[in-house]
Design a protein that fits this description.
rod-shaped; alpha+beta; 3 domains; 8-stranded mixed beta sheet; 442 residues; Methane Monooxygenase Hydroxylase, Chain G, domain 1
Length: 442
C-alpha cells in the first residue's frame, strides 16, 4: 500500500518535503562557546556569487585535516561532531556559514569564556585561506542565569551596549562592534528558557549578524552608483536645456540623440552591474527584521534593544540603498522621456522636410506638365508639317500625271484635318501611357 502511494508521488515531492527539514537548528545547551564564520566569495563583477564549488572545496580541506569524510559536491548543508567541537555548515547563495560549538565550564568570567571558543581548534592554514573573504565573524558565549551589566561592559569595546530580554526566558547582549581579535561578540543568557529555545535563539542571533553584514554590502555600491547618477543627471539636465533652447543648428538634434543614447547605455550598465546587489540588500534587510521580530524583545531599562539599534544604525543605510535603486529606475524613465521627446521633434522636422520635398516635387511636376504640353503643341505642328509636306508632294505628282486636282487647294484643305488627326493621336497615346503607369503603381 505504501509503495503504491509512493509511486503516485510527483518526482520532486520527496526532495521538496525533505527540504524544510534539511537545515535543523544546531543543538546547543548552556554553557557553550560558539564561533560563527560567514565566508563570502563574489564573482568577477562583484554582483553575485556562484560559490558552491569553492565553498565545498574549503569544507573538504577542513574535513581532510581532521580525517573526516566530506559531503558530496551537491550538498548544501553538513553537520559533524569532531569530538572537541561540532560543526554545522550551510552553503547559501552568496556565502557559506561555518558554525563551530564547544562545551565550556559553567560560570566562567566572560573574558575567559571568549578565550575558549572553538576557533582555537581550527588549522591556521585553513583560517589563512579565508583572508579577504570573511563577511561575518562572531564569537558567542551561551551561559545560564541573568547577566551582570557591570561585568558585561568589560567584554565589549564599544561604549553603547545593546541588550534585551528575549523569547520570555533569555537575554541577548552585544555591542555589534568588531573587537580587537577581528570578531564581534554576543553573550546569550539562558535565564528560564524552555527546551529547544536556546538553539533557536543562537540561530536567530547568528543570522541577524550575518544578514546585517550582507545587507550592508549594498551601501558602498550605493555610494558609487549615487556619484555616477549625479553625473548622468547633470548631463541629462544640460541636454534637456539644449532641447528647450530655440536655437537648433543643422545636425544638433542628431548630436543630442547620440548623447542621450550614450547616457541610456551608461544607466543600463549601472543597472545591470548593481541592480542585483540592491535587491539582495533589500532581501537581507527583510530577513534581519524578521529575525528580530522572532526574538520577541522586552526592554531592559537603560539599554537599547536590538530592534532599536537596527532602526537607528541599519535602517538609514538600507534607506540609502533603496533610494539609490529608486533613483536608478527613475533615471531610466527620465532618459526614456527625453529620448521620446527628442525623437518626436526629429520626426516632426523630418516630416516637414518631406512635406517640403513633396511640394517641390509637385511644383516640378507641374512645370514638367506645362513643358510637356508646350512640347506636345510643337510636336503636333512638326508632325503635321511633315505629313502635309508629304501629302503635298503626292498631290503634285498626281497633278503631273493628269489627275484633275489643284495641289495648292488640296494642301490647304488637308492642313486642319492632319493637325486634328495628329493631335488626337498624341492625346490618345498619352492617356494610354498614363493608365499603364497607374496600373503599375497599384
Amino acid at each position: 500500500m505504501n509503495t503504491a502511494y509512493t509511486s503516485l508521488s510527483h518526482a520532486q515531492r520527496v526532495p521538496l518535503a525533505a527540504e524544510i527539514h534539511s537545515r535543523p537548528f544546531l543543538q546547543v545547551e548552556a554553557p557553550e562557546a560558539i564561533t560563527h564564520l560567514a565566508v563570502y566569495r563574489p564573482n568577477e563583477s562583484g554582483s553575485r556569487s556562484n560559490n558552491g564549488p569553492e565553498q565545498h572545496a574549503l569544507l573538504v580541506q577542513l574535513c581532510a585535516h581532521f580525517g573526516v569524510a566530506a559531503p558530496n559536491a551537491a550538498a548544501n548543508h553538513f553537520y559533524h561532531d569532531f569530538g572537541r567541537f561540532r560543526l554545522k555548515w550551510e552553503c547559501h547563495t552568496e556565502f557559506a556559514s561555518y558554525t563551530f560549538t564547544e562545551k565550556i565550564a559553567s560560570k566562567l568570567p566572560l573574558q575567559e569564556a571568549f578565550g575558549k571558543v572553538p576557533l582555537a581548534h581550527l588549522p591556521q592554514a585553513w583560517i589563512e585561506a579565508l583572508r579577504g573573504r570573511l563577511m561575518a565573524a562572531v564569537h558567542v558565549v551561551l551561559d545560564r542565569g541573568p547577566a551582570d551589566q557591570a561585568l558585561l561592559q568589560d567584554a565589549f569595546s564599544a561604549a553603547t551596549l545593546v541588550g534585551s530580554r528575549v523569547m520570555q526566558g533569555g537575554e541577548v547582549w552585544t555591542d555589534f562592534a568588531i573587537q580587537a581579535d577581528g570578531f564581534s561578540r554576543f553573550v546569550l543568557r539562558d535565564v528560564d528558557m524552555r527546551a529547544q529555545q536556546a538553539p533557536r535563539l543562537v540561530q536567530r542571533v547568528l543570522e541577524i549578524e550575518t544578514y546585517r553584514m550582507m545587507a550592508l554590502l549594498g551601501l558602498p555600491t550605493a555610494r558609487v552608483v549615487g556619484a555616477a547618477l549625479d553625473d548622468i543627471e547633470a548631463e541629462l539636465a544640460l541636454l534637456a536645456a539644449r532641447m528647450v533652447d530655440g536655437n537648433h543648428p543643422e545636425g544638433a538634434d542628431q548630436e543630442l540623440l547620440d548623447q542621450i543614447t550614450r547616457l541610456a547605455a551608461r544607466q543600463e550598465k549601472l543597472s545591470l552591474d548593481h541592480g542585483y546587489r540592491f535587491s539582495a540588500s533589500k532581501a537581507y534587510h527583510r530577513l534581519v527584521k524578521s529575525r528580530i521580530e522572532e526574538l520577541r524583545e522586552a526592554r531592559i531599562e537603560g539599554v537599547p534593544t536590538v530592534g532599536e539599534f537596527m532602526d537607528r544604525r541599519l535602517s538609514p543605510a538600507m534607506s540609502t540603498c533603496e533610494s539609490t535603486a529608486v533613483r536608478l529606475d527613475a533615471l531610466a524613465r527620465r532618459i526614456g522621456n527625453v529620448n521620446d521627446l527628442l525623437r518626436t521633434r526629429v520626426s516632426i522636422v523630418h516630416e516637414n522636410q518631406n512635406r517640403q520635398i513633396l511640394q517641390s516635387m509637385d511644383r516640378r511636376a507641374a512645370q514638367q506638365l506645362r513643358l510637356q504640353q508646350a512640347v506636345e503643341g510643337l510636336s503636333v505642328a512638326a508632325i503635321s508639317y511633315y505629313v502635309i509636306g508629304l501629302l503635298g508632294y503626292a498631290g503634285k505628282a498626281l497633278h503631273g500625271i493628269g489627275v484633275p486636282i489643284d495641289p495648292e487647294v488640296t494642301t490647304g484643305v488637308l492642313v486642319p484635318i492632319v493637325c486634328g488627326t495628329v493631335w488626337l493621336g498624341l492625346r490618345r497615346m498619352h492617356h494610354r501611357m498614363q493608365r499603364r503607369a497607374q496600373h503599375a503603381r497599384h
